[in-house]
Design brief:
Layout: H1 6-19, E1 47-49, E2 58-61, E3 69-75, E4 78-86, E5 89-98, E6 105-112, E7 132-137, H2 146-159, E8 166-173, E9 181-183, E10 190-197, E11 205-211, H3 212-220, E12 227-235, E13 242-252
Parallel strand pairs: 8-10
Antiparallel strand pairs: 1-13, 2-5, 3-4, 4-13, 5-12, 6-11, 6-13, 7-8, 7-12, 9-10
Amino acid sequence: MIKPSTPTLRLALFASLCISLWLPGCAFWTDEAPQDKPPQVLRKLPLQFSAQDKSQWQAMRLPGKLLTAYRVDTQGPRDALLAEAASSASMLRQALHIPPEQLGGLQFDWRVDQLIAGADMRQRETEDSPVRLILVFEGDRQRFSAQNNLLSELTLSLTGEPLPYATLMYVWCNDCPAGSVIVNPRTDRIRKLAVESGAGRVGQWLSYRRDIRADFEKAFGEPPGALLGLAIMTDTDNTRSTTRAWYGAIRLQ
């Protein structure tokens, strides 16, 4: 059995956060103990997830982090999900199993009233984002590097589940170019696609239409496997700051 060093253990704990995207979690917006893992169920497209969809969203506390507060909030004619972060990081997630041949379009809306001062998605010490839409995929683990194999083995020993094959995050950057891909500094199995950059459109509802397959291939250089889960996350734990943002409906086509 591997006895991890402190730096390696930190990496394994980081990797375990990614696993939480599709493992069973707490009840909606609560902090209860995890439940047994449900069987994977094939979800038929199209799918829509909204702020009122409390039966499907699962709240997830991240180890050692304060909870970001999520609640339904009316924004003009629409109901949205308000996220308020104060030196915190937690997520809401959906468990899925959509075969790669069925992956198509993705639509989502969000609004950010201010950027996070000092946040830089490229640096682990300041890697915060006011909004994230996160997709988790399965794939061929034989392609893992030695480091990712070690992370996966350590995470399996800590959580009972291996490191996800690939995680794609749609994010809002302070200054990185829109359309740029950012490889996570801890593992290349997490990559972020900046769909918005800078403060030019803060305070507005913004709508996006993305091609999941094209975005995955741009980020990872290969076709995607099955989509196993999606999540939303607003976090300010690294910069020790506050922010708030709103999420609208998320649609898979």
